[in-house]
Specification:
By secondary structure, the protein is an all-alpha fold. It has a domain of about 100 residues: Cytochrome c-like domain (Cytochrome Bc1 Complex, Chain D, domain 2), CATH 1.10.760.10. Helix content is about 45%, strand content about 0%. The protein contains 7 helices and no strands. α3 packs across α7 and α6 packs across α7. The termini are far apart.
């Protein structure tokens, strides 16, 4: 009886030690975990319909898609703290899974890509015009890993994310 009790106590001690070791490692893991990733459900809202007899003549994606990215001017004033705070929250929702907490391409999902997603604080990305970044985020990068997010993120939210990324500066 005493042997069985000692064996059970030893097993409990080993299990508790293993759990402590696992959770310590897990909490210090540099990339994050899938259960930390927020759920994004952009298509659950009802679609806004145009009232009968009205056809939109301006606005929308066509203004951005078919012009050179260098000629697109951001409608967002990137110098306000409210803009960077909102952009930071949107980055955490839509971009951090691939580009990571440190904007270096080591996100929860991005770490499995080869090559890794781009470092958003690199001199190359920071030197791009806002319109070029907008087009890459919106319509993807041909031959690259950046998916087209035009149907997932609204136009105004994309501009806020770009303002936030540009506010980070070069690493």
């Amino acid at each position: 009886m005493k042997r069985k009790l000692m064996l059970v106590a030893l097993l409990v001690l080993v299990a508790a030690g293993g759990w402590k070791l696992f959770t310590t490692y897990d909490n210090r893991f540099p990339f994050g975990r899938m259960w930390e990733t927020p759920g994004v459900r952009p298509h659950e809202e009802s679609i806004a319909f145009t009232p009968p007899g009205r056809v939109p003549w301006d606005g929308g994606e066509a203004e951005y898609r078919f012009v050179p990215g260098e000629s697109i001017i951001s409608p967002v004033n990137a110098h306000g703290p409210q803009v960077t705070d909102n952009g930071s929250e949107l980055y955490k929702t839509y971009c951090m899974q691939c580009h990571g907490r440190n904007h270096d391409g080591n996100g929860t999902v991005g770490q499995s890509f080869a090559p890794l997603p781009g470092d958003l604080r690199s001199a190359r990305i920071q030197s791009l015009a806002d319109g070029v970044i907008f087009q890459e985020v919106s319509y993807g990068i041909p031959g690259g890993r950046q998916p087209a997010l035009a149907t997932t993120i609204s136009i105004s939210d994309r501009w806020l994310v770009i303002a936030y990324v540009k506010s980070l500066g070069v690493r």
